[in-house]
Design a protein that fits this description.
Helix content is 71%, strand content 0%. The protein is mainly alpha-helical and 196 residues long.
């Protein structure tokens, strides 16, 4: 008869086997999270059967498929959350696209300061922020930091500067260059920390 430790080991081995397409570090993180969850649940409910606890976690195949879908490594052309054959568009954009859109948004405003430049700049900034947020190349913290530094902060500064009736000429150019440096620096950081 198998002990509780044997059943847990078998369960984790099944998850590892089913999740073999995951990157090794992500697979180990998943297994560590599951093992910790099982340990905590066993401590909280000492009289619960181990089979009941493992059943509550779910089928190893489902857990691995969910992790694969979250990592963007699902079966080609399908997503765990979509119907069979439905293309999974999330994360299919090259990571350079949102970074360029966020950085170039200010260039449009600087080069074409009339009505067309700001409109194109705002559209680029919004589209770049959406693509960054839906990408699988960055963690949630990196996405939040990226959007704050490339979309929210520059927009707030530009709006505040325009509302205050700040002087045109050299101070405005200097403020735009500092903002452009912030955008380029953040884009470079996001490029460096992206997931392959």
């Amino acid at each position: 008869m198998k002990t509780s430790a044997d059943r847990i080991s078998d369960y984790l081995s099944a998850v590892e086997r089913e999740g073999s397409a995951l990157p090794a570090d992500r697979r180990q993180e998943l297994l560590a999270d599951l093992a910790e969850h099982i340990e905590v649940t066993c401590a909280e409910r000492p009289h619960a059967a181990i089979g009941e606890i493992l059943a509550e976690l779910g089928d190893p195949r489902t857990i691995a498929a969910t992790a694969l879908a979250e990592a963007g490594n699902g079966a080609p052309g399908t997503s765990a959350g979509s119907g069979a054959g439905t293309p999974d568009r999330r994360g299919k954009v090259h990571p350079l696209v949102p970074l360029l859109m966020l950085t170039l948004s200010l260039a449009f405003i600087m080069v074409f300061p009339d009505h067309l430049g700001p409109v194109i700049g705002v559209l680029f900034r919004i589209t770049g922020a959406v693509l960054l947020c839906t990408s699988v190349h960055w963690s949630a913290v990196q996405k939040t930091t990226g959007v704050l530094l490339t979309a929210v902060l520059p927009t707030a500064v530009i709006v505040a500067y325009n509302q205050s009736g700040g002087p045109a000429g050299t101070p405005a150019l200097l403020a735009n260059l500092v903002t452009l440096a912030l955008l380029a620096g953040t884009a470079a950081w996001l490029w460096r920390v992206r997931r392959a």
